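INPUT
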Amino acid sequence: MTPREQAVAARAAGQTLRNLPSRKRASLLRRVGSALEANASRILAANQQDLRDAEGVLSDALTARLGLNLAKIESLADGIRSLSEMPEPIGRVLRQTQLADGLDLEQITSPLGVLLVIFESRPDALPQVASLALRSGNGLILKGGKEAARTNRTLHEVITGALRPDVAADVIGLVETREEVSDLLALDDVIDLVIPRGSNAMVRHIQENTRIPVLGHADGICHVFVDAAADPDMARAIAIDAKTDYPAACNAMETLLIHADYANPQGLIAALEDAGVKVHRGPEARGFEYGELACSVQTVADLDAAIDHIHQFGSGHTECIVTSDAESAASFLDRVDSACVFHNASTRFADGYRFGLGAEVGISTSRIHARGPVGVEGLLTTRWRLSGSGDTVAPFSAGEREFTHKTK
Amino acid sequence: MTPREQAVAARAAGQTLRNLPSRKRASLLRRVGSALEANASRILAANQQDLRDAEGVLSDALTARLGLNLAKIESLADGIRSLSEMPEPIGRVLRQTQLADGLDLEQITSPLGVLLVIFESRPDALPQVASLALRSGNGLILKGGKEAARTNRTLHEVITGALRPDVAADVIGLVETREEVSDLLALDDVIDLVIPRGSNAMVRHIQENTRIPVLGHADGICHVFVDAAADPDMARAIAIDAKTDYPAACNAMETLLIHADYANPQGLIAALEDAGVKVHRGPEARGFEYGELACSVQTVADLDAAIDHIHQFGSGHTECIVTSDAESAASFLDRVDSACVFHNASTRFADGYRFGLGAEVGISTSRIHARGPVGVEGLLTTRWRLSGSGDTVAPFSAGEREFTHKTK
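OUTPUT
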């Protein structure tokens, strides 16, 4: 099949999927979860081959992301089953208005259509994204990293195999080459949303080469602001967790802002260094790479200066204030214009699973459509449904009928 | 000011606006409404000059759209005042989840930032869009049609004058040249959403020339499907209203689909012709321009064929089924994938004011972010706000703490 044929087939199969009864769609997800477990040895064998090919080619960090094991497969299956237990996301009524006597309007959730998701080396993204697409009634085309090609192919086979005979395997397409991705990016008449999960450069490249809307999942430049009124133990614990729990994550702290009146900045910095963090200050701070076990530290005069710094240098992902002052906390949460704003909690909580969304397709730093961790809801659109009994607008224009606009 | 300086100033003034107390923002809107009425003679004088310049240059239809009068200004002012009475849209809590004991998450509505709205000859769009931006706490840059340049300049002066001294006039910028628009379309670091209101060609041109998300407001190719089980009087009334109430509107009927078993198709067509509609059938149907007092008619074998026709030839705007059969109606409303799907009601109801949204910035045929008539809600994004007491993720990974994920 050509990329266009794949996308058109995904759209058609997606229509079958969304027209299934809600229970049936939920049971498909349970079947996918069971199939992953039943085929675990096949999946792990393919993964072993990918890992062997990667030896000496990929860095240790990338190899670690590539590897699957039985526990990971079981936890993926669990996640998919818990997604099946969530309330039905399609057809949810968001708004009900009586426009006039006998004329009733509803705004309801609907699938987007066809999604194109491009992800890098981590193969566990494939079952997560596939199950979110199934839950939300969307067709899907996936492009994974080439290091994980065998694992991805096996996962794809197992998942689409579990959908038969209710939904055609075409509902989830898998492509493997950049040329196919280029072709797909031209299909703005068939594909409704592109979700690139990867480097800023990759996201930028895609934005510049498609008319399809792009849900930007870019690196985060997350800040922790330690206020003058911060509890020192809390500041230490949050800064260390935000930086060291997973330094390469997009929700890891990159910059620590310290209020000029904070009592013991040196103690805080020393604690980070004791935890293995390389701390960069002043002009030197420009030199380090985000995602390392390193961060920059900046002293700021006050809350306003901290917020200005975040707006100037941040990426609008996740920012935290550590303070015991309720007023400063409220002001920070109100005024900082990032997808996630936290008070006395580690930036690492910015995650679909931790937020209770079941799973995530990525963390969006876009401001439109979906922002922050994106679960099923970010893969839906809405439709307006109006039921009348022969109503026309002419009598309203003529003043013979009046709108009531009653919210139900 | 350069276009970049204008956009940056609109962003800064937008921040002032959204940090005002809710009551204050509502009172600003009331001031804008009163200022329009108090300056009506000035506005109408500018409009008269624009109309004089347009004589012999613009078509009668365009001239009609360009003209303002006292009643229009009063109705604009009324609309703005009713917008001021709507519940506060900023900071609305959409979701509340207890992630774990003492760790509370909220998803709240927030302004998008800066909007760029490009509209054509109708100057009444300016106060409507300006008031929606003010209500939603956004900065705004407007580009109007050059035929309405004097009217737009006067409206802009009156509106921004009414905001002083609480918000800088920069919160709403006005540009007049295409070159300025080109410059603005490059500012994806400052402008968050572009809303073009105009021809398909204009919307397409903008989509191809910016990385800023575009809220597509394109022509509608709306269908009315008269089912076998349609009441003939109702079918006639709806088809005539949908076509003749305002033929140039994007929610006017362009294609009438008639079920092959409908009793009296000739009577229906004759009624449309009696109402002055030119009816095109078969191959000839390709030749006419959408927006005229004309429509194409197509016989379809059944409901499935009607839905296929709509998906193949429609623009995803608004479609209506006329039927007394509840099952057919439900199937049509479920399966037709357009922004608005209506049962026994004219397509002309697809409108922000008629939907009870207060006003509209346009009707979106995009599938992401906002779909259908776009009011204040389409000009908002969301933020996630998390409040803890020193919480870190490490104890959750170590199994010492557990997520509760209780929805509140």
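end of record. Chain B touches chain A through 71 residues (CB under 8 Å).
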